[in-house]
Amino acid sequence: MIEMSLSFPLDDDGFFRRECPLCYREFKVLMMEDELTSLAQEGLDSYMLEIQEEETDASEEETEPEFTCPYCGQQAPRDNWWTQEQLAYIGVVAQNIIAKMVNEQLVRPLKRMSRKHSSGLVSLQFRGKEMKQQEPWISPEVNDMEIFDLPCCHRKVKVDESWSSEVHCFFCGFPYEPGDMVT
User: Is 5 contained in some domain?
Assistant: First the structure.
């Protein structure tokens, strides 16, 4: 089994960038290290799994945790909050894992089998090339946005400095008026 670690850049305050899958606005969430590790692994795992049928048991839908967009207040499942750049980064890492597996478990063994026959009679000849890997890269995180304490869940988010409307808690959805927020 091939294991690769995946990490994402945080800003200087330790915030992780997210993107609403509905309104496409970006914000940041202060997450604990174990949450980030789990989230990174889940992102990689979800990319590596085959697409499953859309039929979902109703009880599964009820137990899947959802988060709330701080801007539009809409909810979406936990794994829907990746930015486009994060998805591209996960894709390159996943493709590298697949390339490494194909090279180590298929291409190299077939090449060795082709060379083993010294009698001149080759029953199998393989002329394939190893899959190339790309260097995964993601932009460093910039220090932007304004910090808001969320007393409901004892957590923090960052939203665009120009945002003057209601801000929802990413974790529970509780709405705060701009004047209610503690910065």
Answer: no
> Could you tell me whether strands 66-68 and 167-168 are parallel, antiparallel, or unpaired per DSSP bridges?
unpaired
Which structure tokens are listed for 39? 């989230």
89 — alpha (psi -120 to 50), left (phi > 0) or beta? alpha
* Structural domain for 104, as ranges: 15-44+64-180
pLDDT at 133: 82
3-state secondary structure of 106: helix
0.70 cut: is pTM over it?
yes
User: Is 113 a member of any domain?
Assistant: yes
pLDDT of the residue at 33: 81
Averaged over successive runs of 10 residues, the pLDDT of the chain (183 residues) comes to 73 96 97 82 67 43 79 94 93 85 78 62 68 85 94 96 95 88 55
Backbone angles phi, psi at 157, to 5 degrees: -130, 165
In contact, 80 and 24? CB cutoff 8 Å:
no
Nearest to 69 by CA among 30, 112, 22: 22
Question: Does some domain include residue 80?
Answer: yes
Is residue 51 situated within a structural domain? no
> What is the total count of domains within the chain?
1
> CA–CA separation, 71 vs 25, rounded Å?
7
| Alpha-carbon gap, residue 77 to 39, rounded angstroms | 13
Q: How far apart are CA 106 and CA 128, in angstroms?
A: 10
